[in-house]
Specification:
Layout: E1 3-8, H1 22-41, E2 45-50, H2 53-69, H3 78-103, E3 110-112, E4 116-118, E5 131-137, H4 139-149, E6 153-155, E7 161-165, E8 172-173, H5 176-184, E9 188-190, E10 197-201, E11 207-209, H6 216-226, E12 231-236, E13 242-243, E14 251-252, E15 255-257, H7 258-266, H8 275-288, E16 293-298, H9 302-306, E17 312-315
Parallel strand pairs: 1-2, 1-12, 2-9, 3-9, 4-10, 12-16, 15-17
Antiparallel strand pairs: 4-8, 5-7, 6-7, 10-11, 13-14, 16-17
Helix pairs in contact: 1-3, 2-3, 6-8, 7-8
The structure holds adenosine-5'-diphosphate and phosphoric acid mono(formamide)ester.
Family: Belongs to the carbamate kinase family.
InterPro entries: AceGlu_kinase-like_sf, Asp/Glu/Uridylate_kinase, Carb_kinase
GO cellular component, one term: cytosol
């Protein structure tokens, strides 16, 4: 049995990026819950983290559209939208995981914790927005949005244009003691949804939300270190990390040492905003203490990967 932090990628929440309805998300969460509960059934202590890029972008856009029609309707600040996305996704995941555990007669409770993550107000990420949020647009649509709304938009790994926002590094998890207590008591915890709501800690100890989205793979890594997890499992749409990805000479990797990963990062094998933060988070975790390992694989292969049968395993 291992203590594992599982980071869920976008495909674990919205299987079809074109269908962003709540109904479709809940259905996808039911599918995702099966893979999560497989791991619980195998005896692992599971802590779940997840992304929120599409959802937080959609929440922001909904408020902006309402405000554009009627200026008396306030635009919701970005950190509040992040907190809403945590509640929205956490609600679906906890309902689906609870139901799957009930079906298998697993007597555990599951809860999503609205989690705040402290960031440094001087983080260089604030000056260079990189984190894609919301839906995908064509280049023409993106140009209109940039001109009309003042968004910064970038092409996202060959998949279309998206709004980008600052993505500072996670420094500390405010709710760490509560998460630890719940995990130690045997509960299934969903935390740092969307990387956590980014907050700055002021001199008097109070917290203030900031307009940014923390990378959920890096926030998951932070949680995995704080909880002294054995493994960080990053689930996405591919079974293995590759070099020469999408090229005729693509090579899928079974293992990756920290040294090899750093060399491949240098050579540009991992796309920024998609595979790069996953490999960076995996390297940070593997490097943080002897014996720790990270696995990058798909949701469907999670159970097999935990048994050492597939996925890319990153070790020191
Ligand atoms: N070197 C690589 N090896 C494997 N996949 C890669 C690589 N570079 C980019 N990718 C792409 O990155 C995707 C994962 O990033 P993304 O979809 O943004 O993450 P998430 O699952 O967290 O939402 C993979 O599904 C794959 O299409
Ligand atoms: N917060 C975050 O990393 O979200 P995505 O995984 O959806 O990009």
């Amino acid at each position: 049995m291992a203590r594992i932090v599982v980071a869920l990628g976008g495909n674990a929440l919205q299987a079809n990026p074109k269908d962003i309805s709540a109904e479709a998300q809940l259905e996808t969460c039911h599918h995702t819950a099966k893979a999560i509960v497989d791991l619980i059934e195998d005896g692992h202590e599971v802590i779940i983290a997840h992304g929120n890029g599409p959802q937080v972008g959609q929440i922001v856009a909904t408020y902006e559209a309402a405000n554009a029609q009627d200026s008396s309707k306030p635009v919701m600040p970005f950190p509040e939208c992040g907190a809403m996305s945590q509640g929205y996704i956490g609600y679906h995941l906890q309902q689906a995981i609870r139901e799957e555990m009930l079906r298998r007669d697993i007597k555990k409770s599951v809860a999503a914790i609205v989690t705040q993550v402290v960031v440094d107000k001087n983080d260089p990420g604030f000056k260079n927005p990189t984190k894609p949020v919301g839906s995908f647009f064509t280049e023409e649509q993106a140009k209109v949005l940039m001109a009309e709304k003042g968004y910064v938009m970038k092409e996202d790994a060959g998949r279309g244009w998206r709004r980008v926002v600052p993505s500072p590094m996670p420094v500390a998890v405010v709710e760490e003691p509560i998460i630890k207590t719940l995990v130690e008591a045997g509960h299934v915890v969903i935390t740092v949804g969307g990387g956590g709501v980014p907050v700055i800690m002021k001199e008097d100890g109070s917290l203030e939300g900031v307009a940014a989205v923390i990378d959920k793979d890096l926030a998951s890594e932070k949680v995995a270190e704080l909880l002294d997890a054995d493994e960080l499992v990053i689930l996405t749409a591919v079974e293995k990390v590759a070099i020469n990805f999408n090229k005729p000479n693509q090579k899928d990797l079974d293992t990756l040492t920290v040294e090899e990963a750093e060399k491949y990062i240098e050579e540009g094998h991992f796309a920024p905003g998609s595979m790069l933060p996953k490999v960076k988070a995996a390297v940070m975790f593997a490097n943080s203490k002897p014996g720790r390992k990270a696995i990058i694989t798909s949701l469907e292969k999670a159970r097999e990967a935990l048994k050492g049968l597939t996925g890319t395993v990153i070790t020191r």
